[in-house]
Amino acid sequence: xxxxxxxxxxxxxxxxxxxxxxxxxxxxxxxxxxxxxxxxxxxxxxxxxxxxxxxxxxxxxxxxxxxxxxxxxxxxxxxxxxxxxxxxxxxxxxxxxxxxxxxxxxxxxxxxxxxxxxxxxxxxxxxxxxxxxxxxxxxxxxxxxxxxxxxxxxxxxxxxxxxxxxxxxxxxxxxxxxxxxxxxxxxxxxxxxxxxxxxxxxxxxxxxxxxxxxxxxxxxxxxxxxxxxxxxxxxxxxxxxxxxxxxxxxxxxxxxxxxxxxxxxxxxxxxxxxxxxxxxxxxxxxxxxxxxxxxxxxxxxxxxxxxxxxxxxxxxxxxxxxxxxxxxxxxxxxxxxxxxxxxxxxxxxxxxxxxxxxxxxxxxxxxx
Length: 368
Hints:
Blueprint: E1 3-4, E2 7-20, E3 23-34, E4 38-42, H1 49-57, E5 64-69, E6 72-73, E7 84-87, H2 99-109, H3 114-127, H4 143-155, E8 161-165, H5 173-190, E9 194-198, H6 201-207, E10 210-215, E11 218-224, H7 225-230, H8 235-240, E12 244-250, E13 253-255, E14 258-263, E15 266-271, E16 281-287, E17 292-295, E18 309-320, E19 324-330, E20 336-342, E21 353-358, E22 364-366
Parallel strand pairs: 4-9, 4-10, 7-8, 8-9
Antiparallel strand pairs: 1-2, 2-3, 2-5, 5-6, 10-11, 12-16, 13-14, 14-15, 16-22, 17-21, 18-19, 18-21, 19-20
Helix pairs in contact: 2-3, 2-4
């Protein structure tokens, strides 16, 4: 079987596609997911991630391609024969059934005997920390408790992998942060792959081992979360993952993996991965947190490589976000640049002349 980062692939997608007439919801996906991975499908609405998840679950038939679970082709199989658990965005709990009845429902449908159901129920209740809630009904639970019941129902059949379709979308921010930690813990304890669909990049970056960024039915980039965040493969990934400023210009000189362009009357030294030649139009993406804002008098300070980019501006506003703040800098051509830094270490005042500065190695350039 295929191996992924030293692990045997538990899930393999081979040229999977789903077309609805002229609409290519999923368009030829090849993907392998390891046996102990927390893997996220990240993308905007309409990118194809939920359709792909439904194909894996057996709720949607692919136009072509194959789905393999632990080396077994499950493409023609109905959902209940695939050994795949699923957790939905809307918890889909039966309102007239107790917590215990909701959790064991998949086992009842499989004809599992009572003694085995009870044993697995106790295991799931302990894992999901639902002690004392088994006799309650869904309307008597908090949102976080309902989500844990939904997770318990998805896991009680001991699936080969678990699919999660935006399971935290209906929770408030505090509960969402709590459940991010809990879901990651469950995955590590069970040591089975979780495939998680979300449009929320913070969730994907918090929980995932690897991330696939999707757009228009295809995968733009797949890799470890740090690489997706710090080393975007395309302009779309650079714009979608994290918060970035964008600078447009023309490559004036290109030498190896560095190019130069003029912006705000300053020559910038910027990184790229090839494919850009002198005279090409380029878009440069730089994360908010990679930019430093300092008083204009400190303009001459350079980094270790002597190639810090430094451009003059004026601090227009500061947006407080708790531990961090966004510093909005107006440039002389009327554009704005945003930097993110600690809200406690504020060294400049609104209206003051400043310099924005970043290392020549930060960010990435792409053709438009």
